[in-house]
Design the sequence.
């Protein structure tokens, strides 16, 4: 007899709506993404992302590391620089036991002098059992 084990990730939203934020300031870690493990073993959330760009200019406008994450809500994004998003997948150290959910909170630090515009970024989620 063999027993298979897996952890499968389901993410709650497809878009995070960061608030309008002035250059040189930050949006606090209040933008949530809930991740559910529908598998039968625990897993860790791993994330990566792209740099920020505008629809008019797909070149890098500011960097992926300006996006900050935490498993604690309403923190000042400037205080969580160690939890910066990166281009390659990294372990958030947020554990999701089997058949449960956990939440990540996202904020963004807007560089001083950044031009006023609408920016987009892709964040990729995966789970590692």
Sequence:
């Amino acid at each position: 007899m063999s027993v298979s084990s897996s952890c499968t990730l389901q993410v709650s939203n497809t878009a995070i709506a960061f608030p309008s934020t002035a250059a040189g300031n930050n949006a606090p870690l209040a933008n949530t993404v809930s991740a559910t493990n529908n598998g039968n073993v625990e897993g860790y959330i791993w994330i990566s992302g792209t740099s920020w760009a505008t629809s008019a200019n797909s070149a890098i406008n500011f960097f992926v590391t300006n996006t900050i994450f935490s498993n604690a809500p309403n923190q000042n994004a400037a205080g969580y620089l160690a939890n910066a998003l990166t281009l390659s997948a990294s372990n958030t150290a947020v554990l999701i036991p089997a058949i449960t959910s956990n939440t990540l909170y996202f904020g963004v630090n807007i560089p001083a002098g950044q031009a006023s515009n609408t920016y987009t970024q892709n964040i990729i989620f995966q789970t590692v059992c």
Q: What stands out?
A: Strands lie at 9-11, 26-37, 43-49, 53-54, 67-70, 90-96, 100-109, 119-120, 123-128.
